[in-house]
């Protein structure tokens, strides 16, 4: 996934989950944040952030905040990026005869449905931006939707589907993601139940730069 018109700025504050105040070329500017999670460990006053110029010149917020630098590592925080890069990766692999995003299953929309011969696959994608001591954690804020999707995948296994939850690690140097039990015990419970039922856990390791994010490889448990 490649961005265009990326500009560096410095983070000032985040009045709400949709916008941030940044300093760009000596001026304070309001920008859109492409992540409704907390990101409190990342968006620290004075930190370097990366903005993409909005394609609509009439938009009230002229930039989208898509990445941040912390401890020398660029971390992509664009919540739309994980699904985009997974689709790019799955297509490039060429292993599936059919790939459909946003697949209606049960009471949910699962991120991807795939086919390989007569085998059917479901994959739910989660972006991970919270890193501690070399480990990724998800989520950074409670997510009822996340637990619901895991339970849908658990049920799908019993219906003959190959099911997986895939964590797109949006920063380099991290190869594992664990459930953030303290923040969302219900998600952690659903995660362990899904693993026990046979849902595969996939980690997508990415190359992240100021203006791009690309999956380089994957591992699974």
Brief characterization of the structure:
This protein is α+β, with helices and mostly antiparallel strands and 221 residues long.
Describe the structure.
The chain is of the alpha+beta class and 221 residues long. The protein folds into two domains: 6-75, OB fold (Dihydrolipoamide Acetyltransferase, E2P) (Beta Barrel), CATH 2.40.50.580; 81-220, Trna Endonuclease, Chain: A, domain 1 (3-Layer(aba) Sandwich). The chain has helices spanning 81-93, 144-158, 185-197, and strands at 6-16, 19-24, 27-33, 48-53, 63-70, 73-76, 98-105, 108-116, 119-128, 130-132, 135-138, 162-169, 177-179, 200-209, 212-220. Helix 2 runs parallel beside helix 3. The longest helix is centred in the C-terminal third of the chain and has 15 residues, at 144-158. The radius of gyration is 18 Å and the shape is globular.
């Amino acid at each position: 996934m490649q961005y265009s018109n990326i500009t560096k700025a410095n983070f000032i504050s985040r009045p709400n989950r949709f916008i941030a105040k940044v300093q760009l070329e000596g001026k304070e500017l309001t920008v859109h944040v492409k992540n409704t999670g907390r990101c409190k460990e990342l968006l620290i006053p004075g930190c370097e952030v990366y903005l993409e110029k909005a394609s609509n010149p009439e938009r009230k917020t002229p930039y989208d905040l898509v990445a941040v630098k912390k401890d020398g590592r660029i971390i992509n925080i664009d919540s739309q990026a994980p699904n985009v890069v997974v689709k790019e990766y799955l297509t490039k692999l060429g292993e599936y005869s059919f790939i459909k995003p946003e697949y209606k299953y049960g009471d949910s929309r699962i991120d991807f449905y795939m086919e390989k011969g007569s085998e059917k696959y479901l994959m739910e994608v989660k972006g991970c931006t919270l890193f501690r001591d070399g480990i990724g954690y998800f989520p950074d804020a409670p997510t009822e939707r996340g637990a619901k999707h895991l339970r849908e995948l658990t049920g799908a296994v019993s219906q003959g589907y190959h099911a997986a939850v895939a964590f797109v690690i949006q920063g380099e140097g991290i190869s594992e993601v664990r459930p953030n039990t303290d923040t969302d015990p219900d998600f952690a419970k659903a995660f362990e139940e899904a693993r026990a039922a046979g849902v595969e856990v996939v980690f997508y390791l990415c190359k992240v730069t100021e203006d791009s994010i690309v999956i380089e490889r994957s591992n699974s448990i």
